[in-house]
From TrEMBL:
InterPro entries: AB_hydrolase_1, AB_hydrolase_fold, Sec-Metab_Biosynth_Hydrolase. Keywords: Signal. It comes from Rhizobium laguerreae. Gene3D superfamilies: alpha/beta hydrolase (3.40.50.1820). Residues 1-21 form the signal peptide. The keyword Signal applies. Residues 28-248 form the AB hydrolase-1 domain. SUPFAM superfamilies: alpha/beta-Hydrolases (SSF53474). This is Pimeloyl-ACP methyl ester carboxylesterase.
Length: 255
């Protein structure tokens, strides 16, 4: 009886030790794109945190690919342990660059996002396929005293163009708080992208008017997407209108 009890105690100790030794879940770093801000991830953040993930919704400067990627790279470098990098729209180009040189980045998730190859820009890819209507929805450019221009979506056109499956009241708030992107950032060419060496996952909607669904599908296939989720009718802000689907895919990438 003593030997049996000792064996049970030992087994319990080993199991307890195994539970303690389980690796921590990766930190999820979310990078918004043009005309959005970090609050666009709120629904996704709520789900991820509930499921035990640490989350950082980085404030993407939207100034240039080199500048923005360097900032996100610094954020990643400050995190101990594994990281899942998630990018929306132009943020996809940023994470494709920012992940380079970081061994702790284990996977990439592209949410209605660009995944350019070396030498490509966001503007190049957006113009290759029919269906995108962003150029006709932009407001007058804002000239910058430092040179160049900032681009915004016309607030009157924001709901239909950017967030058609989001309630009108919410879309109006998003339009007023949108973050501008420089024209230069959209024409910056990519260097060697991290998706060539890291596993990637993609999610986007068929109702995206900023990046045509055909372009998103081709980028996902080219990157060797582990799984691509296509949400019928979802707009460019699929993470706002369908946070549960986006969070589910991020958690899959985190495994």
């Amino acid at each position: 009886m003593f030997k049996f009890a000792a064996a049970v105690a030992l087994a319990g100790a080993l199991l307890s030790g195994a539970a303690v030794a389980q690796p921590a879940k990766p930190t999820v770093v979310l990078v918004h794109g043009a005309f959005a801000d970090s609050s666009s991830w709120n629904g996704v953040v709520e789900i991820l945190r509930k499921d035990g993930f640490s989350v950082v919704a980085a404030a993407n400067p939207l100034r240039s690919v080199a500048n923005d990627a360097a900032y996100v790279s610094d954020v990643v470098g400050s995190i101990a342990g594994p990281v899942v990098l998630v990018g929306h729209s132009y943020g996809g180009q940023v994470i494709s660059t920012a992940a380079n040189g970081h061994d702790n980045v284990k996977s990439l998730v592209y949410v209605a996002a660009f995944a350019p190859d070396a030498g490509e820009s966001v503007a190049d890819l957006a113009g290759k396929f029919p269906g995108g209507t962003l150029s006709g929805a932009l407001a007058a450019p804002v000239k910058l005293s430092t040179g160049g221009v900032d681009l915004y979506i016309d607030q009157a056109k924001f709901h239909d163009q950017f967030a058609s499956d989001v309630p009108a009241e919410q879309a109006a708030l998003m339009a007023a708080a949108q973050r501008p992107v420089t024209e230069a950032a959209l024409t910056d060419k990519s260097g060697e992208p991290a998706w060539k060496k890291l596993p990637s996952w993609f999610v986007y909607g068929t109702g995206d008017k900023n990046i045509p669904a055909a372009a998103l599908g081709i980028m996902a296939e080219r990157a060797g997407s582990k799984r691509t989720v296509v949400v019928d009718g979802a707009s460019h802000v699929v993470m706002v209108s369908h946070p549960e689907k986006v969070a589910e895919l991020i958690e899959e990438a985190a495994k």
